[in-house]
Design a protein that fits this description.
single chain; mainly alpha; 12 helices
Protein backbone atom coordinates (compact mmCIF):
# COMPACT_ATOMS: atom_id res chain seq x y z
CA UNK A 1 0.00 0.00 0.00
CA UNK A 2 2.76 2.47 0.96
CA UNK A 3 4.82 1.67 -2.14
CA UNK A 4 1.76 1.95 -4.38
CA UNK A 5 0.89 5.38 -3.02
CA UNK A 6 4.53 6.47 -3.35
CA UNK A 7 4.66 5.33 -6.98
CA UNK A 8 1.51 7.31 -7.78
CA UNK A 9 2.47 10.37 -5.74
CA UNK A 10 0.82 12.91 -5.48
CA UNK A 11 -2.41 11.39 -6.85
CA UNK A 12 -3.15 9.59 -3.54
CA UNK A 13 -1.69 12.23 -1.25
CA UNK A 14 -4.99 12.73 0.59
CA UNK A 15 -4.97 9.02 1.48
CA UNK A 16 -1.47 9.49 2.90
CA UNK A 17 -2.68 12.39 5.04
CA UNK A 18 -5.75 10.52 6.27
CA UNK A 19 -3.60 7.49 7.13
CA UNK A 20 -1.39 9.65 9.38
CA UNK A 21 1.96 8.56 7.93
CA UNK A 22 3.22 11.63 6.11
CA UNK A 23 7.03 11.83 6.25
CA UNK A 24 7.71 8.16 5.55
CA UNK A 25 5.63 8.20 2.39
CA UNK A 26 7.14 11.49 1.19
CA UNK A 27 10.61 9.91 1.40
CA UNK A 28 9.35 6.75 -0.29
CA UNK A 29 7.90 8.87 -3.10
CA UNK A 30 11.40 10.25 -3.74
CA UNK A 31 13.16 6.86 -3.47
CA UNK A 32 10.86 4.89 -5.78
CA UNK A 33 12.31 6.84 -8.72
CA UNK A 34 15.75 5.28 -8.16
CA UNK A 35 16.80 2.63 -10.73
CA UNK A 36 15.94 -0.13 -8.22
CA UNK A 37 13.00 -2.35 -7.46
CA UNK A 38 10.63 -0.17 -5.36
CA UNK A 39 10.64 -2.74 -2.55
CA UNK A 40 14.45 -2.61 -2.42
CA UNK A 41 14.31 1.20 -2.19
CA UNK A 42 11.83 0.92 0.67
CA UNK A 43 14.01 -1.63 2.45
CA UNK A 44 17.07 0.60 2.11
CA UNK A 45 15.15 3.41 3.82
CA UNK A 46 14.23 1.03 6.66
CA UNK A 47 17.86 -0.12 7.03
CA UNK A 48 19.07 3.49 7.24
CA UNK A 49 16.45 4.14 9.91
CA UNK A 50 17.64 1.00 11.73
CA UNK A 51 21.20 2.32 11.88
CA UNK A 52 19.93 5.68 13.13
CA UNK A 53 18.11 3.78 15.89
CA UNK A 54 21.38 2.11 16.89
CA UNK A 55 23.02 5.55 17.15
CA UNK A 56 20.13 6.92 19.23
CA UNK A 57 20.26 3.95 21.61
CA UNK A 58 24.04 4.23 21.86
CA UNK A 59 23.69 7.89 22.90
CA UNK A 60 20.96 6.99 25.40
CA UNK A 61 23.05 4.20 26.92
CA UNK A 62 26.04 6.53 27.31
CA UNK A 63 23.88 9.04 29.19
CA UNK A 64 22.40 6.41 31.50
CA UNK A 65 25.74 4.75 32.29
CA UNK A 66 28.79 4.74 29.99
CA UNK A 67 30.14 3.83 26.56
CA UNK A 68 29.74 0.09 27.17
CA UNK A 69 26.07 0.50 28.06
CA UNK A 70 25.52 2.42 24.84
CA UNK A 71 27.18 -0.27 22.73
CA UNK A 72 25.20 -2.97 24.55
CA UNK A 73 21.92 -1.13 23.92
CA UNK A 74 22.70 -0.88 20.20
CA UNK A 75 23.61 -4.57 20.00
CA UNK A 76 20.37 -5.57 21.73
CA UNK A 77 18.42 -3.67 19.09
CA UNK A 78 20.40 -5.21 16.22
CA UNK A 79 19.59 -8.70 17.58
CA UNK A 80 15.89 -7.88 18.00
CA UNK A 81 13.70 -10.04 15.70
CA UNK A 82 11.25 -7.16 15.27
CA UNK A 83 14.03 -4.89 14.01
CA UNK A 84 14.91 -7.47 11.35
CA UNK A 85 11.25 -7.65 10.25
CA UNK A 86 11.05 -3.86 10.01
CA UNK A 87 14.21 -3.71 7.88
CA UNK A 88 12.65 -6.14 5.41
CA UNK A 89 9.45 -4.13 5.00
CA UNK A 90 8.80 -0.69 3.53
CA UNK A 91 6.65 0.39 6.49
CA UNK A 92 6.97 3.50 8.71
CA UNK A 93 7.67 1.59 11.94
CA UNK A 94 11.46 1.51 11.45
CA UNK A 95 11.51 5.28 10.99
CA UNK A 96 9.25 5.77 14.01
CA UNK A 97 11.61 3.66 16.13
CA UNK A 98 14.60 5.72 15.01
CA UNK A 99 12.89 8.98 15.98
CA UNK A 100 11.87 7.37 19.30
CA UNK A 101 15.50 6.54 20.10
CA UNK A 102 16.46 10.21 19.69
CA UNK A 103 13.44 11.36 21.71
CA UNK A 104 14.77 9.11 24.49
CA UNK A 105 18.33 10.45 24.14
CA UNK A 106 17.23 14.09 24.14
CA UNK A 107 14.86 13.49 27.07
CA UNK A 108 17.69 11.98 29.11
CA UNK A 109 19.97 14.87 28.16
CA UNK A 110 17.33 17.42 29.15
CA UNK A 111 16.89 15.70 32.51
CA UNK A 112 20.64 15.74 33.16
CA UNK A 113 21.02 19.49 32.55
CA UNK A 114 21.38 21.53 35.71
CA UNK A 115 19.71 24.60 34.19
CA UNK A 116 17.83 23.66 30.99
CA UNK A 117 16.24 26.34 28.82
CA UNK A 118 12.73 26.24 27.36
CA UNK A 119 14.31 25.90 23.92
CA UNK A 120 15.62 22.50 24.99
CA UNK A 121 12.09 21.43 25.94
CA UNK A 122 10.82 22.81 22.62
CA UNK A 123 13.38 20.59 20.87
CA UNK A 124 11.96 17.52 22.62
CA UNK A 125 8.46 18.60 21.59
CA UNK A 126 9.59 19.08 17.99
CA UNK A 127 11.04 15.56 17.92
CA UNK A 128 7.79 14.08 19.27
CA UNK A 129 5.92 16.10 16.63
CA UNK A 130 8.23 14.64 13.99
CA UNK A 131 7.40 11.15 15.29
CA UNK A 132 3.70 11.97 15.00
CA UNK A 133 4.19 13.04 11.39
CA UNK A 134 6.01 9.79 10.65
CA UNK A 135 3.11 7.85 12.17
CA UNK A 136 0.28 9.38 14.18
CA UNK A 137 0.78 7.00 17.12
CA UNK A 138 4.21 8.62 17.57
CA UNK A 139 2.56 11.33 19.70
CA UNK A 140 2.49 8.79 22.55
CA UNK A 141 6.30 9.13 22.70
CA UNK A 142 5.60 12.23 24.79
CA UNK A 143 5.55 9.72 27.67
CA UNK A 144 9.36 9.37 27.41
CA UNK A 145 10.38 12.85 28.66
CA UNK A 146 7.67 12.63 31.32
CA UNK A 147 8.99 9.27 32.55
CA UNK A 148 12.57 10.57 32.74
CA UNK A 149 11.35 13.28 35.13
CA UNK A 150 9.47 10.79 37.30
CA UNK A 151 12.46 8.45 37.52
CA UNK A 152 14.92 11.07 38.77
CA UNK A 153 15.15 12.25 42.36
CA UNK A 154 15.24 16.05 42.59
CA UNK A 155 14.05 18.89 44.86
CA UNK A 156 10.35 19.84 44.52
CA UNK A 157 11.14 23.27 43.03
CA UNK A 158 13.33 21.73 40.34
CA UNK A 159 10.74 19.05 39.57
CA UNK A 160 8.07 21.75 39.24
CA UNK A 161 10.23 23.65 36.74
CA UNK A 162 10.77 20.45 34.73
CA UNK A 163 7.02 19.89 34.48
CA UNK A 164 6.59 23.48 33.32
CA UNK A 165 9.09 22.75 30.55
CA UNK A 166 7.10 19.67 29.57
CA UNK A 167 4.16 21.99 29.01
CA UNK A 168 6.29 23.86 26.48
CA UNK A 169 7.23 20.58 24.80
CA UNK A 170 3.58 19.51 24.61
CA UNK A 171 2.52 22.81 23.05
CA UNK A 172 5.17 22.45 20.32
CA UNK A 173 4.07 18.86 19.68
CA UNK A 174 0.39 19.74 19.39
CA UNK A 175 0.99 22.85 17.26
CA UNK A 176 2.75 20.80 14.60
CA UNK A 177 -0.07 18.25 14.45
CA UNK A 178 -2.76 20.94 14.61
CA UNK A 179 -1.38 22.40 11.37
CA UNK A 180 -2.54 19.23 9.59
CA UNK A 181 -5.81 18.83 11.51
CA UNK A 182 -7.90 20.65 8.85
CA UNK A 183 -6.86 17.91 6.40
CA UNK A 184 -8.09 15.15 8.78
CA UNK A 185 -4.54 13.95 9.44
CA UNK A 186 -4.67 10.39 10.78
CA UNK A 187 -8.47 10.24 10.57
CA UNK A 188 -8.47 6.56 9.62
CA UNK A 189 -6.60 5.67 12.84
CA UNK A 190 -9.60 6.69 14.94
CA UNK A 191 -11.79 4.15 13.13
CA UNK A 192 -9.18 1.42 13.64
CA UNK A 193 -8.96 2.05 17.37
CA UNK A 194 -12.69 2.39 17.94
CA UNK A 195 -11.87 4.71 20.82
CA UNK A 196 -15.44 5.96 21.14
CA UNK A 197 -16.92 2.48 21.66
CA UNK A 198 -16.14 1.23 25.17
CA UNK A 199 -17.68 -2.23 24.70
CA UNK A 200 -15.64 -2.74 21.53
CA UNK A 201 -12.48 -1.92 23.48
CA UNK A 202 -13.40 -4.43 26.20
CA UNK A 203 -14.05 -7.14 23.59
CA UNK A 204 -10.72 -6.45 21.88
CA UNK A 205 -8.90 -6.58 25.21
CA UNK A 206 -10.47 -9.97 25.91
CA UNK A 207 -9.48 -11.31 22.48
CA UNK A 208 -5.93 -10.01 22.87
CA UNK A 209 -5.55 -11.66 26.28
CA UNK A 210 -6.89 -14.92 24.86
CA UNK A 211 -4.40 -14.80 21.95
CA UNK A 212 -1.53 -13.98 24.32
CA UNK A 213 -2.53 -17.01 26.38
CA UNK A 214 -2.47 -19.19 23.26
Amino acid sequence: MYLSRAQHFPDQFLSTIHDGKLIHELLLAALVHLPLDPLVSGRLLSVVCGWLTVIGLWLSGKMVADQRAGIFAGLLYICSPLAIVHDLLAIPDAMLTSVASFVLALSLRLNQMSNPHRWHAAGVGALVALAGLVKLSGVFLFALPALTILMRTMPPEQRHRRWEMMRTALIVTLLALAAFAPFNYGGTERRKVGALDLMLQVERLGRNLYQIGE
